[in-house]
Structure prediction request, 249 residues.
Amino acid sequence: MISQETFNQLYDMHLSALARDIKERHTQPSFIELGFDEQLSLLIDKEWHRRRERRTADLIKAANFCYNNASVQELDYSVERGLTKKQINEFAECSYITSGHNIIIMGATGVGKSYLACALGISACRSRYTCRYVRTPNLLDELAIAKVSGSTRQIIRQYAKPKLLILDEWLLTQVSSQGLEDIFEIIDCRSVEKSSTIFCSQIDVSEWLQMLGDSLIGEGLLDRVIHISHNLVLNGDSMRKKNGLKQSS
Prediction:
């Protein structure tokens, strides 16, 4: 029988969950009958999964998703939507992050761009990648405030650091010249580090440069994005409208 001193040592090492698991299992005949190696394997496996789930939960919380429960398993794969399970499952395996590639999700308002991006982001968290979600208008506001307070460099580093950055509502609003410079620096840092970015936009890629003022900085930004991006176009009716009709029927 394990002594109280050993349990105290486990508590001191912040292994209280493991200590509780040991106490519970030592009252189970099926566990006691196992050999030492099998007992140890079961206890370590439980602790490993517990820590992995805790780490995943921490990463999801830090990402600040707008849909914390988004899942690729819950996506609508109706033919008119233009999505295939094979393609989305490949993205969910995060090989695009390993390769340092981006994803551009385009479609009209309400078709599920944000949900899909969050689902892919949560898949990335489950693969233990750091992630950050932000609506681009909010990011521009944050950068503008930072310019006044002198904390621009801090904000740029904050968004350059995650292995996956999700920029929702990309080009939904006009980008000022200063805002464009700051976003270019974020994207440039991410490009150097081969970090991935998911862009959600109602605007087709062919119109991005015009939306960015046909500027040299805009050209530089797109050069760092488009050539290493996978494009997804979502079609169909608004998911909000569709879900609303389901709930009212």
